[in-house]
Amino acid sequence: MAAKSAVLIFFLSSALHAKEGVTTMKDSIQNKVVFQKESKAVSVLSSEGFKAVGIGLLKGQLLEKHSTATPAFLFVHEGKVEFRISGKKIQMQSGDFVKIPKVEEHEIEAIEDARLILVK
Fold it and tell me: Per-domain residue ranges for the chain?
């Protein structure tokens, strides 16, 4: 039986704004931030007004099905999780991220110990 608790690690809020549509999309920071010999590599991954929340899940723990009133951005800092949304099961590991549309129910289960960053 999966444990049903999550540890909130940190919270950060800011007032950045952008007019960008959000779609559910798995991607990887390795794909979006490409090292360059000439200069530092900077890539905007999500640019909406936001707060960031760190989440820690031990293997088997579940962040139960829920939705959010605003679009969100979930980044897997370390570990592996299964992200479930709209009947889809998406395997994610360190470096992967997904954009979560507002009011779309979703849940996350840790396949191994994982630390995540949720930005919304």
Answer: 7-35+49-119
Residue range 7-35+49-119, CATH number = 2.60.120.10
pTM equals 0.66
Place of tokens 């709209």: 86
Per the CB < 8 A criterion, the answer to whether 76 and 93 are in contact is: yes
Instruction: For residues 20 and 17, give the distance between their C-alpha atoms in angstroms, rounded to a whole number.
Output: 9
Q: What is the CB neighbour count within 10 angstroms for residue 1?
A: 5
- How many whole angstroms from its chain centre is CA 101? 12
The Cα–Cα gap between 26 and 55 comes to 18
| pLDDT per position as a tens digit, 21-80 | 445 567 777 777 676 777 666 566 766 667 788 898 889 999 999 998 989 999 999 999
